[in-house]
UniProtKB/TrEMBL annotation, chain A:
A Pfam family matched in the record: YCII
Domain of life the protein comes from: Bacteria
Recorded family membership: Belongs to the YciI family.
Residue runs in coiled coils: none
Alphabetical list of PANTHER family matching this protein: BLL7171 PROTEIN, BLL7171 PROTEIN-RELATED
Protein name per its UniProtKB record: YCII-related domain-containing protein
Annotated InterPro entries: Dimeric_a/b-barrel, YCII
Domain YCII-related: 15-108
Amino acid sequence: MAKYLLLKHYRGAPAPANDVPMDQWTPEEISAHVQYMQDFADRLEKTGEFVDGQALAPEGAWVRYDGEGRPPVTDGPFAETKDLIAGWMVIDVDSYDRAVELAGELSAAPGAGGTPIHEWLEVRPFLAEPPTITE
Amino acid sequence: MPQMDEALLRSLTPNVLAVLVRRGADFAAAEDAVQDALVEAVRVWPADPPRDAKGWLITVAWRKFLDATRADAARRRREESVDEEPAPEPAPAADDTLQLYFLCAHPSLTPSSAVALTLRAVGGLTTRQIAQAYLVPEATMAQRISRAKRTVSGVRFDRPGDVATVLRVLYLVFNEGYSGDVDLAAEAIRLTRQLASAIDHPEVAGLLALMLLHHARRAARTAPDGSLVPLAEQDRGRWDTKAIAEGVEILQAALARDQLGEFQAQAAIAALHADAPTAGETDWVQIVEWYDELARLTDNPVVRLNRAVAVGEADGPRAGLAALAALDDSLPRHTAVAAYLHERDGDLTTAARLYAEAAQKASNLSERNHLTRQAARLNADLNARRGR
């Protein structure tokens, strides 16, 4: 019973085995990819392990506070930013091993040529609530 | 309008469910029917409380079960065999409740499924309440529960199970008592109490005592800003003396039977803490002895880690560090313990570095914040000494 974030990157992750940009895929390959992700989420809901899944647009802005009474400052996006998050899935599983197993399955989503992308996913544990018994 | 007694209502859940199963309903369908009856009770009872709450629930749950069976065309044939006046009830129900605990903690279930099924089928909580307590969507929790029911559907209801599996599930509910609308720690205590009245077993008593002794500290465990207050710094005047007295009494009766188990040993440690008027008066020597017992009973490395802390208090920080050196440093909280012992030993530079490192490794936010504050406190001290 621990939550993990499976993080997908637009960039910043090591290069996958099947490294063809999505805009070079056939429309059928894109549909197959999207279907795989949906089926994966549906399957996790049926196993009682799904918490959340979201995708992010690649473009965004940097925002910061600029002092009392002033509007926030926006800037960017900066082309040199190495890490760009594409989306995530949050799962609630019994063990770290199970989280790794599921990340492995998600990484097998088909890409160009209909074969798995072998995409690198980041698996990050949530900081949980403290246990009641500590001694 | 009389106040709805939800605790009473939910305490009847396992009995009612067991009656339906005895009458021939399969477990999954019976469990759904009992849930429906509970929902109806919440709706109807405030205005029209029944004289016999249990009888009312059985009647309504049985009707719900028959309705569902009738609605299910595929099950029409089975309907004919159950849609007749049920035979009179077999008398005592304590045994049925026990069977239900065994079923919901069956070894074929994963820990999270066993927890969810126990809270619903034995605890009478709704899927929504359980989902909220564990911060997952209701649909996910519904699937987790229905899968769990399918997993145990072939298990015979009259086979005795292993009480140790039930205790592990109840311990999980208590120890991961997340803060939601449902007080899972209190629910774990209620379910363990109910189990203790169904089976006479020293480890069930040990777990109940352990829960009561820890629950007693609840008010003192969190500061107004939500941060964790370590045991040594807790205001002991805020400990619940009634819960402590009950826990100690239950523990003493269990220990007198001379069948020591890990929960009794853990409760004994908690009782020694409860017994100390101030942190400075804690009987650490006895606590180390109990950790030695505990280490003999389980091979859990966390026990040896906690033992190292106790040794550090009983025999000095050097002895604690020596005990710690024998343990795998990848254990959770190993670095935090090392930081604490180095601070006690006067090596503030090492302690500050280790506190900061331990904060990075913390598995929960309260602990991380606490460890970061410890590092910051020592760093401020060290900087002041250096004259900045």
